Amino acid sequence: MNYHRANAVASDATACPVGGAASAHAFRFPSSRLLHLGRLAIAAGALAGSTWLARGDGIPVDHHVKLTPETAILGHFSATKKPVLTIPSGATVRIDGGGGSRWRDDPNAWLKENNIPATVETNAAIAETVKVLKDTPHRLPPAPSTTPTPPPAPGTPGLPAATGGHILVGPIYIEGAEPGDSIEVRILEVVPRIPYGTVGANPGRGALPDMVPRPWLRVVMLDLARNAGVFDAKTEVPLAPFNGVMGTCPPDSDGANVRSGPPGKFGGNLDCKELTAGATLFLPVFQKGALFYTGDCHAAQGDGEITINAVETANTAVFKFILHKGKKLAAPRAENATHYITFGLDPDLDKAMRMAMTETVDFLKEKRGYDFFEAYALSSIGVDFRVTQVVDGTLGIHAMIPKRLFKDEVNNYWFRPR
């Protein structure tokens, strides 16, 4: 496989929430972690204009959370679900996710029909997904329907009535995290666990709901050796896996059992294609312990995600969690080796754009000491505003702020692609 290796920056000062100052005292790398970060692997791809498939060679982790009915939760965030793991700041965690479940009653029949070289018996991730969908108690009641779903036939691996929503894992409790703090989530690795993904469209959904006359589905086979998603015999999509949902538990003011579809100031279903291996996500904390959830596994996605699907798959992801006490954020922010990233979120795309602009102006004022006019002007001439997604109820814009603009800044970011 043609993989580039990544180098961690051996610096006394690590990343801090974008816009804040790094502290060599507060955020020092333990020397034992430098080797861990140096083992990160990134698939071939130019830095400008693309992302990469992360294919690790066994990154050492402190904990491994497997996908089980107990660790999973379907379609919502819960402040009362028992944490699946409690960790100190600085811990590295491998998390197995689920997905690819486009069958109804018989997964093996569906896999065979779609020429997928896997079965429930031969692929652990598929088996775990089936079991979670069938057995997890962590689900909301199905939406009311005038047409009840019949129970599966006896003896089949059928599923209960669909409740909709993402397959999530969590929550992870970060010791010491309290409302008003923020957490830094370093994305060390994201690797598909199954040999395929799916993309589809349904009437009444997506960005063109009135133009879809019938349900439609395409299986995209994943060729990890070539970093390609095979759309058809003549068309392939570069792979850049990431988890669409990464978030802290929403505040109590948002209500109980918040649905995972719309993103928010807690992060959640951001569906930002920039959040691949080598990126960092900064999230506000609203509940004691932060209560981090993740899922909605993607192998690739375009900006906009217009059908409401990326290449939907199942991933294993490795995250490093760092707590920032007293660093309050109004909304998620992110960073990668080349850019700072701010977000705008609102059901109205114009208002989402306004939020992304004001978040960017505020970031530049904090980081560079600019006044409003300077930050506003630089945002106009040097920052790219992109449509993240237009299908999640709460729509998204993300701003890409190039680090190369800041000639006096030493880039001590933890990750360097070769």
Q: Any overview of this molecule?
A:
This protein has 418 residues and is α+β, with helices and mostly antiparallel strands. Helix content is 14%, strand content 31%. The chain has a single domain (3-137, 159-417), classed as Jelly Rolls, CATH 2.60.120.580. The protein has helices at 31-38, 107-113, 124-135, 349-368, 372-382; strands at 3-8, 41-43, 63-65, 72-74, 76-77, 85-87, 92-96, 167-174, 182-192, 196-201, 216-223, 228-232, 235-238, 242-247, 258-259, 267-269, 280-284, 292-298, 315-324, 333-335, 339-346, 384-389, 395-402, 415-417. Helix 4 packs across helix 5. The chain is globular and about 60 Å long.
Features:
alpha+beta; Jelly Rolls; six-stranded mixed sheet; 5 helices; 14% helix; disordered N terminus
